[in-house]
């Protein structure tokens, strides 16, 4: 597989997430307060809830339904009720393009 353009960097709002799907893999793409772009699995491991609808705080994304927060860097849950991590994907920025390959997990 190759990296796919998911959006323009200029389309991302700081401290918020958008949902994208690449080759059947749902992801939450986040521009954090430090200006870094992250891509993690979009489905909360506690419930079938889109994380892209959640709240960004620093380098975490919190599920709006039950409050589990996930590290944008590692995918690890930081509090209960979730205890399983979500996948984290490598992101490439090429000019204004945000590229993600769902087959490439980010080295943590």
Q: What would you call the shape?
A: globular
Largest sheet: 6 strands, antiparallel
Uncertain segments are none
Please give the CATH architecture: 3-layer Sandwich
Helix content: under 10%
Estimate the strand proportion.
over 45%
Question: Cα distance, first to last residue?
Answer: 21 Å
Q: What is the chain-wise order of helices and strands?
A: EEEEEEEEE
Note the total helix count: 0
The CATH class, by name, is: Mainly Beta
Examine the coordinates and then state which fold CATH places here, giving the name of the CATH topology. Rieske Iron-sulfur Protein
Counted up, domains total 1
Strand arrangement in the largest pleated sheet: 1-9-8-4-3-2
pLDDT average, as an integer? 95
Protein name: 3-phenylpropionate/trans-cinnamate dioxygenase ferredoxin subunit
InterPro entries: Rieske_2Fe-2S, Rieske_2Fe-2S_sf
Organism: Microbacterium pygmaeum
GO molecular function, one term: metal ion binding
């Amino acid at each position: 597989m190759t990296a796919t353009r998911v959006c323009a960097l200029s389309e991302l709002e700081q401290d918020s997430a958008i949902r994208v799907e690449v080759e059947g893999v749902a992801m939450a793409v986040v521009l954090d307060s430090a200006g870094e772009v992250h891509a993690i699995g979009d489905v909360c491991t506690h419930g079938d809830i889109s994380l892209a609808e959640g709240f960004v705080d620093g380098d975490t994304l919190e599920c709006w339904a039950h409050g589990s927060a996930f590290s944008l860097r590692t995918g690890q849950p930081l509090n209960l009720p979730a205890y399983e991590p979500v996948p984290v994907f490598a992101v490439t920025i090429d000019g204004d393009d945000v590229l993600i390959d769902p087959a490439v997990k980010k080295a943590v």
